[in-house]
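Blinded run. Sample ID left blank on purpose so nobody reads anything into the name before looking at the predicted structure. Input follows.
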Amino acid sequence: MRTVLNAIPANDLGYGDLRGSPRLRSALADYLGRVRGLVADPSHIFITSGFTEGRALACLVLRAVGLRRVAVEDPGYSDWVAVDKAGLQRVPIPVDEHGIDVDQLIATGAEGALITPSHQFPIGGVLSASRRQRLVRWLAQHDGYVLEDDYDAEFRYDQAPVGALQGLAADRVIYAGTASKTLAPALRIGWLVVPPELVRPMDAELRRWKEGSPRIEQDALAHLLQTGAYDRHLRKMRRIYRGRRKHLLDCLAAELPELEIEGMAAGLHVTLRLPFELTRADETQIVSGLRERGLATEGLGRYSQTAEGPRRLFVGYGRITDSAIASSVRLLAKAVRAAQRHEVGP
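Blinded prediction complete.
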């Protein structure tokens, strides 16, 4: 930050371009093209105050260009306020280990979709190549749009991550990214890469929405990207999270060997499939009991009211210390055993 403050011209300390810092947009275009396979022109990049704001702006633009019904993943996000306020009707579509069911999406007659193809949240699957191609063909044939949340794409531990969907259909995909997971949520920086036809509608929404995002922080992120410091930081964090994930899986294998781990080796949480005999009420009991003991986890019920099949727990490891993992898993095992015996409490 000090380096940027010492170098930034006084003329650049005004309100500036509503789309964001030119330096950051240029750096992101290079980075996203190199790392995520995007077709990214700096003039099509909009800097936002995090992903939530970017999603809200994207939904307003989709509504402004005529979309009414959008497919959403089920299970998926738990906060749909921005989507609903934009006037869009949500159409839930099931997901599995191969991502959203594209055939069901098409059958609903939805005009667009909001998806997490690189690492589906919260189940953890990756949209398969065949479904990607099917989705891209549908978008081209029906002039649809997709909002792609590139959730956790930077954190893949077993192999290189698949490229972004936007690289296959840059004229039909709004790409959303953020620094919240890679750096910190408090930084409040996200970005949208917008298809050419949506640039003017996005400009119009921006003028009604805000006076721009903080410029100094944007140039600081641009400095990290341009100097290679961002890449070095990600390599370091991948090593840390890979080790932490392995430790968590080892503890789970020792304490709860019967539970299946779902999803790819990616991201900052593990998806646990609970035994089939456990109900939604049992899942709720486990989550509430763990919270009383100071262990924060979430169940499938938070992210879906309709999803079928076994109940699930989502256990994060992004902020827990290595030393706390073993004791936390022991608490989790006690809670699951108590639910199986229909006891109260973990």
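Unblinding after everyone has recorded impressions. Residues 229-255 form the longest helix (27 residues).
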